Amino acid sequence: MKFGFAEQVAIVLLFWLVAFMPLNGQGNAIRAQAVFDPPVITTHRESSYVITVSGTQQIAQPVLPKVPGLTFSEAPNVSQAFRSINGVSSISISLSYRVRPTRQGTFPMPAFSIKAQGKDQVIPTSSLQVLPPSQEDLRRAKLKRQQEENFRQALFLETSFDRSFLYEGETMPGKIDLYIQNHLPAVRVLKYPHMTTGTFSQSRIDGESKNQVQRTVTRNGKQYTKYSWPITITSLKQGMQEIQYAIVVSVRLRNRNPNTDPFLLDPLLGLGREHAIQAFSEKIAMEVKALPMEGQPASFEGAIGSFETEAKLKPQSVSMGNRVDLFLEITGTGNFEAIRAPSLNSSDQLRITWKNSTFEGDENLKQDGTKRFEYILYPKEPGLVEVPATPFTYFDPVAGRYFDKSIPVRKLKVLSEQTAANGTQLGSQANSENAATSNNEKQYEVKPNSGNWHLALIPSMSSAPPAFWYYQLIPLGGFVSMLGCLWFKNQKTRGNKSNRLAKTKRQLKQAARDKDAPGFFQAARQVIQLQVGSIVGHANPETLTSDEILGVLKGKELSPADCQEAQEALAIADTLEFSGKCDEELSLREWLSRMDKLLKKIRSLA
Q: Contact 186/209 with Cβ under 8 angstroms?
């Protein structure tokens, strides 16, 4: 029998209507059950706790009751099923948890409820029986322990530090050594050494580290390849701390027989499977002491280590209307990352602004080197002007006391504009008189056969050949090209900074719309850094600290209310970055309006 098009469409619709019609009677009822699979295991095996809910697929993940002696995985594996038997459709969803026993015995899982379509469904009780380990389990466990011991001997970490204590805020150097046995087929490092315990910040370690050292050593009669990384750690919290590092390395193994140790088999021509090995260093106890309050100077701002200071004025004397550069250099060993620009306040005789800071040394470790701060001085009156003292105090952790390395008050000779001009004229007049006297004292003798006479000392250029003029175009063209490259580079740099500023402002507005407080204040800090950096001509404004930003704003004579506004925004950004939360309620819409006003005022300082 042949059906027309309309009949075929009607048959298809009828089939789908029957297959997916709402469930009736028992097919529509929601049922829940749970079983252990398998229900009997040994202490060295694992089981699965499977919850199955039939009649719906809309359930909420339940909170499992705690069963002493059993450990359940946090995230279950979820699977869904659809069946149609004799015209009755059914759907179900299953949650499977991995279960690992910690001892022998019978462990009943009590009944609990699960949300299905907004209603509570009771999960019935079930039990898991855990038996003593069999001989096969014991053999497997022994083999596993042997494998782990082999891995520990073939790949391990060692850490060392100069002392077993440090002070809060101190930066201390150390070293991490990775030993890989030569016959271990290591492929690559999946995760470089990282700290797993303790409240410390540390220098960066990655594959691009320039300080990585590799060499071959012998330990306990075995050949190892040793990788070493110098590091620095900075303490963040007082008290006894434990330091432990871990590394994850991928090795290539061959696993022909699951009952044998794959580590003892060398891979065949590089074939096999990759296996990730995680190695841990021994835990090191480290005491973090509080800085002593006794004898702490008022000028101490957190510098810990051993330092020397030097200040330079360039030039030593200046005329009114010109600037003087003051360079403060701090050289030594310590926590350079925490050293901020010493505060220099303007006076009736000088206007002082902070320009920038640079560091000469290892940018990653920042332990040894020289940090240079540059200030700009503008004299307000002529005469002997006092350059204020530059305060700097540090704490020496070895000596256990504070040292004052402040730069004392210095004198700057400032000439008035008229005095400077008169001095220039007198100098020129004296030079002219000396030249005339010298010429009068000289006598010249003209010999009869002295050669041809010329009307001018400079020869005429009209007689120069054309090639001479063509050759002059070569340096001229090079000079014009150099000017063009400098102009293009300057325009490109300005464009990049403008693009970064515009992009960060868009992120600021987007974070306000999304009510993302951490993202908002992080973008706010970056906008302020870029604005302030453009004012002082900083090459990398993202490195400006909060203290340095406030020093520039105060030096540019921004109003105290606006400085307080900037300080509050930077403080909230630091709080959200380090703790992830803020104690006060933040209205991002209000803050967006405040930031717009603040940025306009900062931009007006340029």
A: no
